[in-house]
Amino acid sequence: MEKDTGTLKIEWAGQFMPVLSRIREQFVKEQPLHGVTIGMALHVEAKTANLVMTLAAGGAEVYITGCNPLSTQDDVAQALNRVPHVHCFAERGCSVEEYYAAIDKVLDAKPSVTIDDGMDLIHYIHTKRRELLSTVIGGCEETTTGIHRLHAMAAEGKLEFPVVAVNDTPMKHHFDNVHGTGESVLSAVMITTNVLIAGKYLVVAGYGFCGRGLARKAHGLGAKVIVTEVDPRKALEAHMDGFLVMSMAEAARLGDIFVTVSGNAHVINSTHFSQLKDGAILANAGHFNVEIDIDWLEAHASGKESRDGIDTYLLDGKRIHILAEGRLVNLATPKGMGHPAEVMDLSFALQALCARYITEHGKELSGGVYEVPEAIDVQVADQKLASLGITIDTLSDEQKTYLSNWDAGT
Q1: CA distance 180 to 173
Q2: What predicted TM-score, i.e. pTM, was given to this entire model?
Q3: How remote is the C-alpha of 18 from its chain's centroid?
Q4: Alpha-carbon Rg of the chain, whole angstroms?
Q5: Rounded distance, CA 10 to CA 188, Å?
């Protein structure tokens, strides 16, 4: 029988996710999530489906919806609903009301573990569904924006169960954020617009791990990269890495393509729109659609024309092109596929192992944000190297002693 497109996508991605495949085999044997109900709000696409299937293979009952109204691949969501012990409520293009109705459906299952990308599940539990606080053992958070929100909650003493900051581990920062964001954002911009990157001024707003990966990849394609920042240390780092550094007010007049990746609101706003060149292309790679002030454009532009993945606003006789409604450009454009499978293999391997960790240890922890245990991070790196056939050195007993001894000198 011919397979449906969603299943084919899931199987294709799975071929390039050897670490998660090994973890799935381990989970099938050990059943570490037996009897656990997991609630998830993630981008529902092929790589995520492989994580969901790994959790279900480990004994969990999984309920999942999207974490962005435009990032769901409907054929993948439909395929997930044919997987035993998986219940998917995500739908591409849903309204805000439908989005939160799906969040409610996930929470109606009374999950004991949450897995978030952006913290919407955790926020909803703490504000709208507080009766579930006695049910949840703990959670995992996937992305920078979600971690910022969690730390703000924890600082106010309002985070009432433990959450593992999967985003903040080296295996996430240096691979998912740098390489995943860098390649997938540029791929989405190019396939949506069919414009050349080489020779253009490409403005990167924010020089965190995602921003530096994007800047590096854009430079490799021949772009003249401009970085804008508010942190003087990151700005200096960008300068030393060979990029032009300036304020957004200056960059607005020069840029051909703009990508916001700051995690903050209105990084490109009314003070910048009037300075843009005719035909400037604006995209967002931060989690929420707040980095470009589209509400202001909607209110003040004299016209708007829409095509697949592009809204063009006419302002003072100039065309301003916004990709994916200002949402995550690498997932929300019609042909956006998200991060490459090899990268998400590492991030979702971390998620699977952290879900197991919080299941086994969550009851021992108080409310707050916790780092990924180093042993889990190292395990994922080891398994990835093994899948690539790469061997590395190990410390000798003498070297271990030297590194742990304060008495050795010149």
Answers
A1: 10
A2: 0.91
A3: 20
A4: 22
A5: 20
**206-209: long-range pairs with CB below 8 Å, 24+:** 206/260, 206/261, 206/262, 206/263, 206/264, 206/267, 206/286, 207/231, 207/234, 207/235, 207/237, 207/238, 208/144, 208/177, 208/234, 208/261, 208/262, 208/263, 209/173, 209/174, 209/177, 209/178, 209/181
Domains of the chain by range and CATH?
Answer: 5-172+340-388 (3.40.50.1480), 181-332 (3.40.50.720)
Residue 140: what are its φ and ψ, rounded to 5°? -130, 145
Q: Give the C-alpha separation, 167 to 150, whole Å.
A: 12
Tokens 């956006």 found at: 336
Taking only the tens place, the pLDDT of each residue in 372-404 is 999 999 999 999 999 999 999 999 999 999 999
Q: Hey, is 88 helix, strand or coil?
A: strand
Here the tokens at position 383 are 């398994």
Asked if residue 208 belongs to a known ligand binding site, the reply is yes
Q: What is the pLDDT at residue 410?
A: 64
Name residues of the chain where pLDDT drops below 70.
1, 409-410
Alpha helices in 59-208 (DSSP H): 74-80, 96-108, 120-127, 144-155, 170-171, 181-193
286 labeled part of a ligand binding site: yes
Asked if residue 212 belongs to a known ligand binding site, the reply is: yes
- 229 assigned to a ligand binding site: yes
Widest pairwise Cα distance in the chain: 73
Q: Is 333 annotated as a binding residue?
A: no
> For residues 63 and 87, is the Cβ–Cβ distance under 8 A?
yes
The DSSP bridge partners found for residue 65 are 41
Q: Is 209 annotated as a binding residue?
A: yes
b (16+ CB within 10 A) / e for 303-336 = eeeeeebbbbbebeebbbbbbbbbbbbbbbbeeb
| 285 has binding-site annotation | yes
φ, ψ at 138 (rounded to 5°): 175, 180
Q: Is 90 annotated as a binding residue?
A: no
Q: What is the pLDDT of residue 2?
A: 73
**pLDDT at position 109:** 98
Residue position matching structure tokens 């012990």: 85
Helix orientation angle between 341-361 and 46-57, rounded to the nearest 10 degrees:
30
> Is 68 annotated as belonging to a binding site?
no
Phi, psi (rounded to 5 degrees) for 44: -90, 95
Residue 354 assigned to a binding site: no
